[in-house]
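Task card 7
Instruction: Convert sequence to structure tokens.
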Amino acid sequence: MLSEQTAATVRATLPAVGASLGKITERFYNGMFTAHPELLRDLFNRGNQAAGTQRQALAGSIAAFATHLVEHPDERPDTMLSRIAHKHASLSVTPEQYPIVHKYLFAAIVEVLGDAVTPEVAAAWDEVYWLMANTLIALEKRLYTESGQTGWRTWRVVERFEETPEVVTFRIRPADDAPVPDFRPGQYVSVRVELPDGARQLRQYSFSSAPGSPIRQISVKRVQGEGAAPDGEVSNHLHAQLREGDTLELSAPYGDLVLEATDAPLLLASAGIGVTPVIAMLEQLARTGHPAPVTVVHADRSPAAHALRADHEAFAHKLPDATVHFWYEEQAPESAHSGLCDLSSVTVAPGTRAYLCGPLPFMRAVRAQLIDKGVAPADIHYEVFGPDLWLAQA
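Output:
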């Protein structure tokens, strides 16, 4: 993958670059947004930028990619690259934007590391960048071709209902009533909305119903800011403004956490609003009558906060061999567990494939418990809502 000389240079400089990635990515974004304010206004999530989570995710992905290249020179981290490519495709990222990122990223590297960036070091990291960028460009081109849709399509809200005080479900259909490509259970779309200041901000929402119908469903949690993070601009706008008959713009479906056709035992674990892709998967399994054991796990603050709870239970009960385990921190009924998710008493069938979605601490804990129970790490798949900080916090 990398030339021998480049690999040696990257290996030698990785500790210094890695230690400075936080400063590098901060200066990179500041420089790029100063020169291209339209990118912050109409492409990047302003809330994630304010909270700093996007910088952490970028730093983590760069460090993970470079580390993988020097430790496994004959392999490519396809899982990580696929996840990034799906997110980029949902945002309609174009090849022309990669040179812009390159310009301001390398300016930030030189600014932070100074004289340590010799021509040899610059050339080595340039090779790393373009290896990653060109791979993503090729993956995104393929995704655009497979989706059959470029840009944005207008959908109309046909029904709106409150799941919980913080979660609203919108049922939508194409405004032109023309056919749309189907999706796979677990996938998401980007929703683009125009905010009062004229910005067109994008957010990703998983479909919370199974494929096979021209009417689709997304369930949106109102994001309340904590610490440095502001309230969610788009989620609060949708809660306050979007009503039946209104329209919104959607990308094609993307996402690589998808339910694969299998006869293996399954475990579907979610927490909070991470329930949405799991509901789509569970509905699909109920439709097809999945014959193997299915273990359904969910954790939430309380039963009243558990969005789509009735669907969660109903679809599980339609399966021939399913067990349901709900945990609530407050007001747990006798049929559920009290406290945080704990799989110690949950039977996990040999050969189980697991799908996880929820806050990162929840998924880390569930993954560790599943591995302790003998589930192969390769059979544990996850989806992070927002910037993927799994690598950044590893």
